[in-house]
Protein: Phosphodiester glycosidase family protein
Organism: Paenibacillus zeirhizosphaerae
Amino acid sequence: MKVIEVKQMNRFFMMALAPFIGLLLCLLLFNRPVPVTSPAADYASNGSLTAESKSVLQKLNEAEMLAESTLSTIHKTAELYKQTTHVMSGIVKTAAAQSARPGTLYNHRITVRLGTPYQTIDSDRITIELYKVNPGAYRGYAMKVKLKDPSAMQMSLGSGQPGSSETTLRAVQRTGAVAGINAGGFADSGGKRYPLSTTVLGGKYTNGFQPSYKDLTFVGLNENGKLIGGKFFSKSMLDNLKPIFGATFVPILLQNGQKVTIPSKWRDSPKRAPRTVIGNYKDDQLLVIVVDGYNESGSSGATLQELQNKMYALGIQDAYNLDGGGSSSLIVNSRVVNKPSDGSLRPVPTHFLFYK
């Protein structure tokens, strides 16, 4: 039941009342004195009322009765209107609550799989829930994000200058974000650190479009606040998804709820490592998992297959691996949540940031 239906009901009652109101106005405003001899004078001179006077009195009595009936009808209609409006408002509220119920039930199902959040941040723009992930083989953290406003998630590109980089903590503090993670990969050149391959910021390509090669994957957000990603071999392919921002790394883990074959190069080298992965649920909520590891030699952290299986079991539809190793970082409320393998946060060019 929509608000417009209540408005239509209001117009119906206004149209129903219009004839009665018009009649009442005519009786009150346009009733002119009848140019006849007063009934009292006729009675005094003739000893009885003339036929014309009797007719006038009868009409006046009838008009008075009609006015009283009209006023009574108006009062009854107004009361019915009031009652109907109250009922309609109740129906609208009930319909709104019922329409939100499927989303609430779905959110409950996915939350049950994650466990109990140990920290929650909620505002009109975003809801963030933090969970611990510890299946035994590795230890990490999950951050479930509901974007109520698409602009509550953005990407930073260094400090704004080409080749610049900064830690995720610095990016969060500099921009006033409430949370942040590292994003795409990078390449060092001439003492500077540049984002890897296709990078989009503010809906524009920062260094032109580069067709996907080898196993590189673009991942970002579109103008509707939906996670987008994959391999794009022409600019038009990516343009059609209307990206607002995004970065590149490797590989894809899930697409349309199905596991994607992980290239052996990335599956085995390194086998284990600190990781940052991002994915989306059917209702477009996001899930980020950041895994701890004490080095990048392959002996600590998680394998990509383990994270692929984890995201699949949690009901994620599309999942992408972001830069890992010493780059992996999770910042919430200006606090470093994970334990960076370098012993301190690594400056990188791109970060996904979240705002209250």
